[in-house]
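Annex B.
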Amino acid sequence: MAEQCEKKMPEEQTVEGAEGFLVVSDVPEAEETTCVEKDGNESLVVPEPEFVPVDFNSSSSDGHETQKTEDKASLSQEEGSRFADLSENEKKALQELKQLVQEALNRHEFGSSASVEGKMPVAKGEEKKATEEPGKIDPETEKDDSIPVQTIAKTLLEDDGAKTLEAIEETIVACVHSNPTEEKPQEKAEVGAESPQEVFIWGVKLLEDERSDVILLKFLRARDFKVKDAFTMIKNTIKWRKEFGIDDLVEQDLGSELERVVFMHGHSKEGHPVCYNVYGEFQNKELYQKMFSDEEKRQKFLRWRIQFLEKSIRKLDFSPGRISTIVQVNDLKNSPGPNRWELRQATNQALQLLQDNYPEFVAKQVFINVPWWYLALSKMISPFLTQRTKSKFVVSGPSRSAETLFKYISAEQIPTQYGGLSKDGDFGLADSVTEIIIKPSAKHIVEFPVTQACDVSWEARVVGWEVGYGAEFVPSAEDGYTIIIQKMRRIGTSEEQVICSSYKVGEPGKLVLTINNVSSKKKKLLYRFKTKSSGN
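Patellin-3: predicted structure tokens.
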């Protein structure tokens, strides 16, 4: 182990891990992915090494293109929710599961909750007791030994008038005159009045339409298409949602202290909503104590995390072929170490709940700013994980975190603190970003033509900076003079993340940005322009 720790860790690896806390886990229960005590992938809000096994041998000789193609394919495959796209065995499993669910709804086996509508069924024992009540022997009569008892065969007339002979041998009390023909219609009416349950999960009514099929497929995939196991998981999930009070929880106000810890921002290149989990926020001692100092506070944290997940899931589109999974980005920069007992306990509880009750909601798990010890220790659990689980994980060290995010998320969708251009200002998520690779010791010039008077705004960023930057306006007129907007200057890694500038153009010409890469490494340049009329 010592030798492994001394070895230089690759900056980016495909993680072989089980899904952890601030992430929705969809590992089948039988796999016991998070049971191993000294590993577990993001069972941490502060991901612990115990939860993220890494495959240190997963290097691709084809470079980024091969990785990108495989990742895109795996993301698309996650959305295989159309019935026509399923294999014959998968179609059969889905039909069998739907039949089991329908039978359970008919028998009201899912219990009553805020998500279940309809009259509760009468238990068989109680029903039988109710039908026998009119003919119940009076205690006083029972004590009279003088009343003769005899066995007879009698003919019953059904309530619909049809003459049906039933040879029923029974022991009766001679003086008790109970009339079964009067009880039958009442019993039949009660049965007829009982309608199937209406059960809702994540806002979708089970078996109502194709969206229900998409949800059932999630449970089937989580249990490797083992129908009985998937059905058991569904029943347990519905029961847990009732006991946990999910429908009421969604409406509660649990405060805003954790909004910087977990938040949704933008979409991936395939359209998946992106959830950011910032574990480093728990370095704040005041926040840590407020969330984890005692059991009551840890339970509140757990409820907040479940509430956030529920709200996020209800915004997904469960229609076949649409996006019903989330990309998780887990930032481990400055995350507390694995020795924080309170945090570990809270996240392990959350992990178990997410694993048992939120199947197949993660399209990709991206870990960034991962410390070396996390990578080293996570390798220990990799033999216990399935290939399906491993395919969802990507881990990157600090120096390549931004580059890793760009593989799955466009720059305009990534927050500035993670290397992108998304922030409050003139530009929005709909304003696309151009990405350029600048070779080592090379200069790149960006030209933006302007045909009329207007206000031009632009944003520019070089990942890692350590380059020279300058901006100028060159008029189209031959006798015009070049106007220096920004004199060439060197920008270091510790300086501004994004350059935001604007210039009022009074004549046709072009804006010219110059990026001089003086380093020995290639650099990624991100930029975008926007114009608006001077009158505004």
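The first helix runs from residue 2 to 6. The first strand starts at residue 12 and ends at 15. Further annotation is deferred to the next reporting cycle.
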